[in-house]
Specification:
The protein is α+β, with helices and mostly antiparallel strands and 321 residues long. It is 19% helix and 28% strand. It is built from 7 helices and 12 strands. The strands form 2 sheets. Strands 5, 6, 7, 8, 9, 10, 11 and 12 form an 8-stranded antiparallel beta sheet that branches. The chain has a 4-stranded antiparallel beta sheet with strand order 1-2-3-4, covered by helices on one side. A hairpin with a 5-residue loop joins strand 8 and strand 9. The protein is globular. The termini are far apart. The model has no long low-confidence stretch (mean pLDDT 87).
């Protein structure tokens, strides 16, 4: 099982390779410390000219959530690192959560997923102070209300939720919730409480800023990747993180006398993945990697506490001109 000291080493090694992945040899380096879906996200970024990559890995004041070995009898095995941006901001509520997985006995531990959540209460800011929002540099948004601390047993091991199988059903429900042809998405849900990362996301998919005219937009969200550990929180709720692949199908509308094409802006990485040149397209298929963290309440509606729902990581793109 992964101990505290080796967890520290793995976090620091991953942070170093993450900072070097655009340099010569960086692709091999990141492949040695990351696995899917994170690895696929890095590889896609590498294929986009001038893509800035990602912000520096948050590793300030890390907290290690390592489940007891008895609670992970099979593989993959996991541990989670909660860490913060390296800059010491006066008010820093949000924490990055990186999930590390070991796929087989004796195999390497690799970073698989990164997500964010507020885990501290809001503070009254003094003049000149501001709340750091490091998560935005990774494309994430977080719920304003903080989540409770992770539960630990007497030995300090992170406690896994006994209802993990049931709790993970939230992943499939969210995939159904965000799969539709705009503007037919339904903000109200029997499974999710309304909020900025649920009903407001549906509204944003239905009618985004700079909504293209004459384009039929379909979103198809599918659960992907291995099942991650479900953490038991101190207030009795469960923290569930799920990874998805979102497929965006855009089709220019056609009629008896009209035929619409569309294009992505010159600074849009989708244009780069499609070959650049700001071409006009009749249809495109864009695949994106999305990570969502839920707070699941027994007998209640789930809430999203952090996600890159509005700025997911690009994976691939193809089109018909």
């Amino acid at each position: 099982m992964c101990g505290w000291a080796s967890s520290v080493w793995r976090l620091n090694t991953y942070a170093w390779e993450q900072s070097q992945f655009r340099k010569p040899g960086g692709q091999d380096g990141i492949a040695s410390v990351a696995t899917d879906p994170l690895l696929s996200e890095y590889r896609a970024r590498f294929g986009v000219p001038d893509h800035p990559g990602v912000a520096p890995m948050p590793r300030y004041r890390p907290e290690y959530l390592i489940p007891a070995e008895r609670d992970q009898p099979g593989y993959p095995r996991w541990f989670v690192v909660i860490s913060r941006d390296p800059y010491e901001q006066k008010a820093e509520r949000a924490a990055g959560m990186t999930y590390f997985a070991q796929g087989e006995p004796g195999g390497p531990w690799k970073a698989a997923v990164m997500t964010w959540a507020d885990d501290r209460p809001g503070e009254q800011l003094a003049a000149g102070e501001f709340e750091d929002r490091a998560y935005a540099r990774f494309g994430f948004e977080v719920r304003d209300e903080e989540v409770a601390a992770a539960s630990r047993d007497a030995a300090g091991a992170a406690v896994l939720a006994p209802t993990a199988g049931e709790d993970r059903q939230v992943c499939g429900h969210y995939a159904d919730y965000l799969s539709f042809t705009a503007p037919s998405g339904e903000p109200q849900s029997e499974y999710f409480a309304p909020g900025e990362l649920t009903s407001d996301v549906v509204r944003a998919y239905n009618h985004p800023d700079n909504e293209p005219a004459g384009v039929r937009r379909t979103f198809d969200l599918a659960v992907t990747g291995p099942e991650m550990p479900v953490l038991r929180l101190a207030d009795g709720k469960s923290l569930v993180t799920c990874s998805f692949v979102r497929t965006d199908l855009w089709q220019g509308r056609t009629g008896a006398a009209t035929s619409y094409t569309f294009w992505y802006g010159k600074n849009d990485p989708r244009d780069a993945l499609l070959g650049g040149g700001r071409k006009h397209w009749r249809s495109t298929k864009v695949r994106l990697s999305m990570t969502v963290t839920f707070e699941v309440t027994p007998g209640g509606k789930a809430e999203v506490v952090g996600c890159d729902c509005l700025k997911p990581a690009l994976l691939s793109a193809e089109g018909t001109d």
